[in-house]
Design brief:
mainly beta, about 50% strand
Length: about 110
Amino acid sequence: GRIWYTDAGNDVLGVFDPESGSMEAYPTPRDLGHPDVISVDMSDGIWIASSTENLIAKFEFDADRFLLYSLKDRANSIANLTFDVQGAAWFVDQESHLVGKLEDSGQ
C-alpha cells in the first residue's frame, strides 16, 4: 500500500507509492501550522495535526481537501493521535498531560 507522511518544513501531507515509485504532496491548510502528527483511521482515512496548533485535520483523498476540527479550549500541544473501533480519534495533549477524544462529527 501507500506510505503517508507529513513534511512539517514544507507544510505538506505526502504519499509515496512503493509499487510505482511515485510521490505526491498535498499542501496543508495554513491554519494547521506545521503538521507533525499523522495517523490512519480504521477506514484508511488520513488524519494530521500540528503540535503547535489546536487543530486536527482529516484529509479527504477523493475530494483533495482537508476537514478541520478545532480543539480550542481542549488541547494545547497534540503529541499523538490514534483511533478506536468506533472511529473516534484519541489524542494526547503533551502540555496539559491529558487525553482527549474527537468524534468524526467534531465533538
